[in-house]
Amino acid sequence: MKKIDDMYKIIEFDELGDERGNLVVAEGESELVPFAINRIFYIYGSDSQVVRGQHANIKTRFILINVSGTSKVKLDNGEETRIVELNKPKMGLYIDTMLWKDMYDFSPDSVLLVLASEHYDAQEYIRDYDEYLKILSDKRRTGEL
Questions:
Q1: Any idea what DSSP says for residue 119?
Q2: HEC profile for 27-80?
Q3: 55 has catalytic annotation
Q4: From first to last of its 145 residues, what are the pLDDT tens digits of the chain?
Q5: C-alpha span between 95 and 8 (Å, rounded)
Q6: Domains of the chain: residue spans and CATH
Q7: 84 has which bridge partners?
Q8: Alpha-carbon distance 102 to 50, whole Å?
């Protein structure tokens, strides 16, 4: 089983800018974004009591960037958890496959941009935590993790 600290990474994108404002660039298949970007979506209008995500993915890897406001992400590999606060528009959070994620504590102005390695496929989402734990156990037993 991968340790949780090997399943995510905090990314600091370069901030370019001048008197006109700032610019942050995220390019797929680069040192900071280690996959081709096949899907982009963003979450906004969620209040601080809402929990989004609540799933793990078999194939898809993600990078989350709070381009406005703040939010928190709880990461869980079935054995350990970590909480990351996304609070700068040049900060990204890389999330590997088979890592449970909850996004929550959205500020009123939060816009959470998500870069995904795969097109949406509902079949590769694990949305039940007990099922997630069973799949992890099976993968550990067969040596897949």
A1: -
A2: CCCCCCCCCCCCEEEEEECCCCCCCEEEEEECCCCEEEEEEECCEEEEEECCCC
A3: yes
A4: 689 999 999 999 999 988 999 999 999 999 999 999 999 999 999 989 999 999 999 999 999 999 999 999 999 999 999 999 999 999 999 999 999 999 999 999 999 999 999 999 999 999 999 999 999 999 888 888 7
A5: 5
A6: 4-142 (2.60.120.10)
A7: 73
A8: 10
- As a whole number of angstroms, the distance between CA 10 and CA 64 comes to 10
User: Which residue is catalytic, options 28, 34, 37, 55?
Assistant: 55
Q: Is the pTM of this model over 0.70?
A: yes
DSSP-assigned beta bridge partners for residue 1? none
Determine the Cα–Cα distance for residues 5 and 109; give it in Å rounded to an integer: 29
